[in-house]
Amino acid sequence: MGSAALAEKTSAPTDLLTPEEFEAAIRAVGAERYHDKHIFHKMLHGGQMNKGQVQAWALNRYCYQDAVPRKDAALMARTDDRALRREWIHRIHDHDGLGEEEGGIERWLILTDGLGLDRAYVISKEGALPATRFAVEAYVRFVAEQPLVVAVASSLTELFAPKIHRERIAGMLENYSFVSDDVMAYFKRRLSQAPRDADFALDYIKTHAKTREEQDACVKAVQFKCNVLWAQLDALYLAYVQGMIPPGAFVPAA
């Protein structure tokens, strides 16, 4: 179905989208709004940043990484669906680790270690931008408070993640002498984890969004999540490209 036909179909809020139309509406959000289009990421991947700016990005992004298991635990706490909990719990293990698996948060700290940041300082989040922390906590609250199918839908930016991870791995290794292959382990692992998670979540919302209103709310949830990611980059750009670093935030070495 072409874009005009899809627009006509979606203009009638009582008409249930087909599974194919529903997925197309979700994917259209990424094509328009995903944060790979933000100027900060284009600069980051294109080698246009200095080490301090890359440090600021990694330090602030840690706030988001650290919040992911909390938002996943909040989602699990809300459902009596054992099958959903059994599937969703591996997301917590992916980030927090389990047994010998170190987990994504540890791999992110290996990145910040490699960039020369003090680990205790990163974990404390003391140097994070206020806007970063507000955006991250808004995401946690959204997942805790919205209807379950909408909360699940908010994770679907993972549909678009592999592309940005591949760009980041290639661009940062090529352009920054202070970035080594070992510290990019987080992104390499997410190349396989994100598609698995996205496939499950997409199937879930196709099955459980029973009304057009619920389908529209799911699309808006993906828009909201894109806004959360975009707002974090707006804050980074303002602080570390435009030079408007707020009091108390990380200040790169001269």
Question: Topology, please?
Answer:
Blueprint (H helix, E strand, L loop, with lengths): L2 H8 L8 H15 L5 H7 L5 H27 L4 H15 L7 H11 L4 H6 L5 H16 L2 H6 L7 H15 L9 H24 L3 H29 L14
Helix pairs in contact: 2-12, 4-5, 4-6, 4-8, 4-12, 8-12, 10-11
Primary descriptors:
254 residues; mainly alpha; 12 helices; Heme Oxygenase, Chain A; EC 1.3.3.11
**Largest β-sheet summary:** none
CATH top level assignment: Mainly Alpha
Number of helical regions = 12
How many individual domains? 1
CATH superfamily descriptor: Heme oxygenase-like
Strand percentage lies at under 5%
Structural class: mainly alpha
Oligomer: single chain
Spatial gap, N to C terminus: 54 Å
Envelope shape: globular
Count every beta strand, where a strand is a DSSP E run of 2 or more residues.
0
Mean pLDDT: 90
Q: Helical proportion? A: over 70%
- The radius of gyration over CA amounts to 19 Å
Q: Under the CATH scheme, which architecture would be assigned?
A: Up-down Bundle
Instruction: Briefly note the CATH topology name.
Output: Heme Oxygenase, Chain A
The stretches of 5 or more residues where confidence is low (pLDDT under 50) are none
Order of helices and strands: HHHHHHHHHHHH
Summarize the structure.
The protein is mostly helical.
What does this protein structure show overall?
There is one protein chain. This protein is mainly α and 254 residues long. The protein has a single domain, classed as Heme oxygenase-like (Heme Oxygenase, Chain A, Up-down Bundle). Helices cover 70% and strands 0% of the residues. It is built from 12 helices and no strands. The longest helix is centred in the C-terminal third of the chain and has 29 residues. It starts with a helix and ends in a 14-residue tail after the last helix. The mean pLDDT is 90.
